[in-house]
Amino acid sequence: MNMKAPLNKKADVAHEVVREVMGSHAPTEDSSVKLSVERYFSADFAKREWEAVFAKTWQIACREDHVAKPGSYYVFELGSESILVSRGSDGVIRAFDNVCRHRNNILVQSRYGSARSFACRFHRWAWDSTGKLSNIPDRETFPGLPADQELALKPLRCELWGG
User: Nearest Cα to 130, choosing from 158, 89, 82?
Assistant: First the structure.
């Protein structure tokens, strides 16, 4: 049996990602795995790792029971990203960027809870649990706004697996 032959296609992809992220620091077939200290403090390494690994793979945000009832939410932090997972009033679980579409402020501060709507602390713009814009106080002071549907929370891909 050839020990250097890849085990399967997934192994090939994994090795390719390691080479892409680690560059010249990637182990070769003839070397033992030695991790460079660069990987722990290098902004460039973190950026490459984000692009090659975290941005391309699914992440576990929370368990389904964290958002068991309509209106319940859970905030998942991944790197510099803040993701709001919410069970809508219609019972559907969705994920959104956890930022106000007007000011880009973090929308929900607490890690989990229940709310009928999510309001920005700056101008109090509010979105319902399905991500739809539900209120802009003093709308007349914001001339030239796009249609409400264009101001809905930015949806992110969200799938359920094993609870």
Answer: 89
Q: Is it the case that residue 147 has pLDDT exceeding 60?
A: yes
Q: For residue 58, name the pLDDT band (cuts at 50, 70, 90).
A: confident
Distance (Å, whole) CA 19 – CA 17: 5
Q: Report CA-CA distances (Å) from 60 to 99, 107, 146.
A: 20, 21, 33
Region 90-110 average pLDDT = 93
**Residue 123: Cβ within 10 Å count:** 16
For residues 73 and 86, the answer to whether their CB atoms sit within 8 Å is yes
| Contact predicate 29/4, CB 8 Å | yes
Contacts of 104 (CB under 8 A, 6+ apart): none
Residues in the chain: 163
